[in-house]
Each structure stands twice: as C-alpha cells, then as structure tokens.
Fold:
Amino acid sequence: MNSAAAKFPSFEQFRADITKLVGAAQTFQQQTAALLEALRSQSPASRAARITRAAAIFAALAALLAGYLIGKVWP
Structure:
C-alpha cells in the first residue's frame, strides 16, 4: 500500500493542479473568442486576397524542390 500511496499526489496538490488547469482553459477560451471575433470582423475579400495563386504555386514548387533535394542527400 505504501508504494501505491507514493505514486498519487496529495489532494492539495491535485486541487492546485486542477485550479491551474481551469485557469488555463479560461484563458484559452478568452483568447479563442478574441481571435474568432477578429477573424469575423474581416471581410471575405480581404481574407482571400492575402495569398495569391502565384504565391501558392511558388510555395508548392519550392516544397517539391526541397523534398527532391532532401531525398537526394538522405536516401
């Protein structure tokens, strides 16, 4: 029984950890709500205009080239 008791934290430590977890969850919810509000306030046209088709194609080609070169170095 002593080995089992040594594995579990005390109730006070468990309670403190749960309190920290609740605080972190509340902070996460607040930050998520603020982010969603900021995203909703932008118009759909401005969101779509951020990444152009040319930039997307360039990024895809760069990724393919990088993958090819990495494959040559580390077969």
User: Anything to note?
Assistant: The chain has a mean pLDDT of 83. The longest helix spans residues 11-41.
